[in-house]
Amino acid sequence: MSKKDEHETNQEAEQAINEDSIKNEENLTANPASELDQLRNIVFGAAKTELETHIEQLRQEMQISFELSAKKLQQEMSEMQTALEEHVSKLDQRIAWVDGQHDERSTKLNTYADQIATELEMSSSSSQQQDEEIQKRLDNEIELLTNKFTKQHNQTIDLLNQVKKDLNTSKTDRKTLARLLATVASNLETDEDN
User: Fold this and answer.
1) Quick one: what percent of the chain has pLDDT higher than 70?
2) How far apart, in whole angstroms, are the C-alpha atoms of residue 122 and residue 126?
């Protein structure tokens, strides 16, 4: 390229730059808000873009964190619900077993009372007064034992229903639940031994 061509190219470039400057000046004077925006963009453009990018990244991280927390909470709630249902099922089985034991003992007591009553009837050597006293004593003992077993049975059912209600309404951790079940089982075993 010759010097003349270079000179003409430089002049054309300068002219284009001058025209752009004139247009920019016209735009700036025509629109002061646009000028302010351009100045802000020049001064804060990179920082603003970086800040917006950082805010978007934080929003995405927070969204992911919230979703993970929600999933974890849902899973823990599901596990607690499953554990609670298992424990309630075990308590129901235990109540059914206690009911069966109560019925069995009541049947044995009634059978025993019937046997004694039959033996008393067959015994002709006893007097009528002795028979009445023995029968009365047996009836009282049967009633006392029946009342005792019924009371213990009702207390156990009330306690288990209260525990079931408490477990359904409160968020109890597994250790507390395990201690509670161990206490109930211990109480039931102590009652059975007595």
Assistant:
1) 77
2) 10
Rounded distance between C-alpha atoms, residue 163 and residue 173, angstroms: 14
Average pLDDT across the chain, whole number = 79
- Give tens-digit pLDDT for 49-101: 888 899 999 999 999 999 999 999 999 999 999 999 999 899 889 888 888 88
pLDDT value of residue 5: 65
* Residue ranges of domains in the chain: 3-63, 84-193
Residues 6+ apart with CB under 8 A from 134: 116, 120, 126
State which amino acid sits at residue 182. A
Q: What six digits make up the tokens of 12?
A: 């054309």
Distances (CA, A) of 83 to 78, 80, 89: 9, 5, 10
Which residues neighbour 65 within 8 Å (Cβ) at sequence distance 6 or greater? none
Spatial separation of the C-alpha atoms in residues 11 and 178, rounded to whole Å: 92
Residue 174 · residue 83 · CB < 8 Å: yes
Dihedral sign (CA 15, 17, 23, 28): negative
